[in-house]
């Protein structure tokens, strides 16, 4: 019974485990700085999901994110919990969850606020094509 309680929520659901493994979870500011510095000069599209564990709309977007990971295999997906990284969320002006930032070369190229999966997919398609 102790083992079950120690399994993180995101890995406890076997239907999302495989595709969610492509979503990098950044849990502290040092990891965020390292990730950002490694990707700021790349032309690769990065989608940052600002989320919170208590946020129902954030949880409702998890299956859509898993599908987007499968569809856009050369796009990076990053998840940041706003409660763990309040400074990073504030730096990017995140005021509602979920907020998705689309970045290239370290700069924001677009944003989607709310659980709007169709809009997110459309914006990823647009920026994914504009290489």
Automatic annotation (TrEMBL):
Give start and end of each Thioredoxin domain: 1-129
Q: Name one GO cellular component term.
A: cytoplasm
Q: Spans of biased composition, class Polar residues?
A: 1-18
Q: What GO annotations for molecular function exist for this entry?
A: oxidoreductase activity, acting on a sulfur group of donors, disulfide as acceptor; protein-disulfide reductase activity
Q: What is its main location?
A: cytoplasm
Looking up PROSITE patterns in the UniProt record yields: THIOREDOXIN_1, THIOREDOXIN_2
Its keywords, alphabetically, are: Cytoplasm, Disulfide bond, Electron transport, Redox-active center, Transport
The listed locations are: Cytoplasm
Q: Region (Disordered): which ranges?
A: 1-24
Family named by the database record: Belongs to the thioredoxin family. Plant H-type subfamily.
PANTHER family (alphabetical): THIOREDOXIN
| Entry protein name | Thioredoxin domain-containing protein
């Amino acid at each position: 019974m102790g083992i079950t309680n120690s399994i993180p929520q995101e890995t406890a659901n076997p239907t999302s485990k495989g595709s969610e493994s492509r979503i990098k979870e950044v849990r502290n500011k040092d990891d965020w700085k390292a990730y950002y510095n490694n990707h700021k000069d790349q032309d690769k599209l990065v989608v940052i999901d600002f989320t919170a564990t208590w946020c129902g709309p954030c949880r409702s977007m998890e299956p859509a994110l898993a599908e987007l990971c499968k569809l856009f295999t050369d796009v990076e997906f990053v998840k940041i919990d706003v409660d763990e990284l309040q400074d990073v969320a504030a730096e990017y002006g995140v005021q509602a969850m979920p907020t998705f930032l689309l970045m290239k070369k370290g700069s924001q190229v677009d944003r989607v606020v709310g659980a709007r999966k169709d809009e997110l997919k459309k914006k990823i398609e647009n920026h994914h094509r504009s290489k």
